[in-house]
């Protein structure tokens, strides 16, 4: 891979938005198709790829578009559901039938508009959709449920739900100018005909990409990457992934509009529980539990312990909590690297895309800490390349940390 030290939008999720299935739903921390294609092209033919942090299944989709096979893991049930739909090989005939169901929904939902339809228990919902738009979107949801049921395992009806997710985000006040989702200045009022037209064009777009056959096969499994388990006894030749970064971003927070509207989340307390399982999770209860967290006896890189010590001594009122956050993040990643070893073919290659971060001006060098963890665990040929600069002012980069497992 070429070394890049400038900011490059072609190496971020922005590059993916117009690339068929890759653009179905937006997740800011998704990585770029271009970067993944470069890495997949290094995988030996007929070998299996593993992505232990699937997210929106970018690795899996790139792999099967290039005729390879892949297994993916995630712990977020919405992303597992979404990823498996994105990776499905659809039949043209069944998609034609789905088109008819979609047209019925589009024409019949306005008759359902009232204030009685179910709306999610999303905090400050009026900040997302105004009092005019919300009942229209809720009526559409209720009509979808009547025609195809709630989101489930049927990939065809899931396509309609994915379009609904796109619609709710495009009609909301969510803004994507930052790494984390934020709010625009105000909410926009949408009329019924505008929602119909928008929903129609989203479906057209999703359908066109769903019609494109995929060459390989990939699935997303619900597996906690801190204790990897094997799937069908497969051993992997190439791990291509982008784990969470130690930057306090919460995937549950980013995904909450989708997760509430699709009923993958119902209460704020569930969000905290889910985020506690996520590496680097930091939402609600996940942060309060950190106060009582302590690592078990494992040899961890000295450079990590030094960074935690410096954060602890920084004098900020939250320094103890942040030091523990960083400690736990790299401890969890260490457990991941350790459990991964059982699933690798001798000679397997690892490529981990990760960013560094700073806490109170103290640098947390993820690349160097990963390198040391890998070394302690017996990986070889460890090296790092800079993929891009993430921020014009601060020294924030994205790295590709690579290694080999020789058994
Ligand atoms: C940076 S995102 C991956 C983005 C992905 N490369 C894409 O293009 O969409 C990291 C993912 O790791 C998942 N994750 C966090 N902790 C995990 C764990 N313990 N086990 C499995 N997946 C986890 C999160 O749910 C999130 O989807």
Explain this structure to me?
This protein has about 400 residues and is α/β, with parallel strands linked by helices. It has two domains: about 10-75 and about 215-405, Vaccinia Virus protein VP39 (Rossmann fold); about 90-210, no CATH class. It is about 40% helix and about 15% strand. The protein is built from 13 helices and eleven strands. It has helices at about 35-40, 60-65, 75-85, 90-110, 135-150, 155-170, 190-210, 250-260, 270-275, 285-290, 300-310, 320-340, 365-375; strands at about 50, 70-75, 175, 180-185, 220, 235-240, 345-355, 355-360, 360-365, 380-390, 395-405. A seven-stranded mixed beta sheet has the order 5-2-1-6-7-11-10, sandwiched between helices. Strands 3-4 form a two-stranded antiparallel ribbon. β1 (about 50), α2 (about 60-65) and β2 form a beta-alpha-beta unit. The chain is globular. S-adenosylmethionine (SAM) binds near residues 56, 73, 79 and 242. InterPro entries: SAM-dependent_MTases_sf (IPR029063).
Report the span from N to C terminus: 25 Å
CATH topology of the largest domain: Rossmann fold
Number of helices: 13
The backbone outline, from C-alpha atoms, is: globular
Assign the structural class, choosing from mainly alpha, mainly beta, alpha/beta, alpha+beta, or little secondary structure: alpha/beta
Q: Any idea how many domains?
A: 2
Q: What percent strand?
A: 15-25%
CATH class of the largest domain: Alpha Beta
Q: What's the count of strands? A: 11
List the helices and strands in order.
Answer: HEHEHHHHEEHEEHHHHHEEEHEE
Poorly predicted sequence stretches spanning 5 or more consecutive residues = none
By CATH, the superfamily of the largest domain comes out as: Vaccinia Virus protein VP39
Return the average pLDDT rounded to an integer. Answer: 92
Output the radius of gyration: 22 Å
Strand order of the largest sheet: 5-2-1-6-7-11-10
Subunit organisation of the chains: single chain
Largest sheet: 7 strands, mixed
Shape-level CATH architecture of the largest domain:
3-Layer(aba) Sandwich
Helix content: 40-55%
Bound molecules: S-adenosylmethionine
InterPro entries: SAM-dependent_MTases_sf
């Amino acid at each position: 891979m070429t070394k890049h030290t400038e900011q490059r939008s072609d190496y971020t999720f922005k590059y993916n938005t117009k690339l068929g299935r890759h653009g179905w739903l937006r997740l800011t921390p998704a990585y770029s198709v271009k970067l993944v294609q470069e890495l997949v092209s290094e995988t030996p033919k007929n070998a299996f790829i593993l992505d232990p942090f699937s997210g929106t299944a970018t690795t899996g989709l790139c792999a099967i578009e290039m005729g390879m096979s892949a297994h993916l893991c995630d712990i977020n049930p919405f992303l597992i559901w979404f990823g498996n739909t994105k990776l499905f090989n659809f039949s043209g005939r069944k998609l034609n039938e789905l088109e008819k169901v979609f047209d019925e929904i589009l024409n019949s939902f306005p008759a359902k508009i009232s204030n009685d339809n179910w709306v999610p228990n999303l905090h400050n919902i009026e900040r997302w959709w105004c009092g005019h738009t919300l009942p229209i979107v809720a009526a559409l949801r209720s009509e979808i449920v009547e025609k195809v049921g709630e989101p489930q395992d049927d990939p065809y009806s899931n396509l309609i739900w994915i379009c609904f997710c796109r619609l709710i985000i495009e009609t909301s006040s969510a803004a994507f100018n930052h790494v984390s989702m934020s709010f625009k200045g105000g909410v926009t009022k949408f009329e019924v005909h505008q929602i119909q037209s928008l929903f129609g064009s989203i479906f057209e777009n999703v359908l066109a990409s769903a019609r494109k056959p995929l060459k390989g096969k990939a699935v997303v499994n619900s597996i906690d990457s801190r204790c990897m388990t094997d799937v069908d006894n497969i051993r992997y030749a190439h791990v291509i992934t982008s784990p969470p970064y130690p930057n306090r971003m919460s995937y549950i927070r980013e995904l909450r509009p989708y997760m509430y509207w699709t009923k993958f989340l119902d209460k704020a307390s569930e969000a905290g529980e889910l985020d506690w399982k996520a590496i680097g999770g930091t939402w609600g209860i996940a942060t309060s539990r950190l106060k009582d967290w302590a690592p078990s006896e494992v040899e961890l890189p000295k450079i990590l312990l030094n960074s935690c010590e410096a954060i602890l001594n920084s004098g900020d009122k939250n320094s103890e909590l942040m030091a523990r956050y960083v400690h736990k993040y790299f401890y969890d990643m260490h457990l991941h690297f350790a459990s991964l070893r059982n699933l690798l073919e001798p000679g397997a290659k690892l490529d981990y895309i990760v960013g560094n971060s700073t806490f109170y001006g103290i640098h947390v060098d993820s690349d160097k800490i990963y390198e040391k963890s890998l070394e302690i665990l017996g990986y070889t040929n460890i090296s790092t390349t800079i993929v891009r600069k993430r921020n014009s002012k601060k020294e924030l980069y994205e790295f590709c940390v690579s290694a080999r497992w020789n058994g």
